[in-house]
Design brief:
Layout (H helix, E strand, L loop, with lengths): L18 H26 L3 H10 L8 H6 L15
Length: about 90
């Protein structure tokens, strides 16, 4: 079996400051990741009541509440307490 070898053209050596500096940097990275994750979780939460109001008002185009507009004006239409035909 032939020996595998290579020649090193350039070798870079970096100093990072010791165990305490590394521990501090890893702690700061973990804290940053936790903050990012918390912001993502917060952004995923939706105010469902406000979202429903947007659907009902037509701000978000959807056919979900289209029937309400179609029955308005009918003598027997009663959508809710706020929109009664009297």
């Amino acid at each position: 079996m032939p020996a595998k070898s290579f020649d090193i053209e350039t070798l870079e050596v970096w100093g990072v400051g010791g165990d305490q500096v590394i521990a501090n940097a890893l702690g700061a990275r973990m804290q940053s990741r936790e903050i990012t994750a918390a912001n993502i979780r917060k952004a995923r939460k939706v105010d469902k009541a406000a979202f429903l109001e947007d659907f009902q008002s037509g701000l978000i185009e959807s056919k979900a509440f289209k029937h309400r507009g179609e029955i308005r004006g009918r003598a027997d239409a009663c959508i809710d307490d706020k929109h009664k035909n009297t």
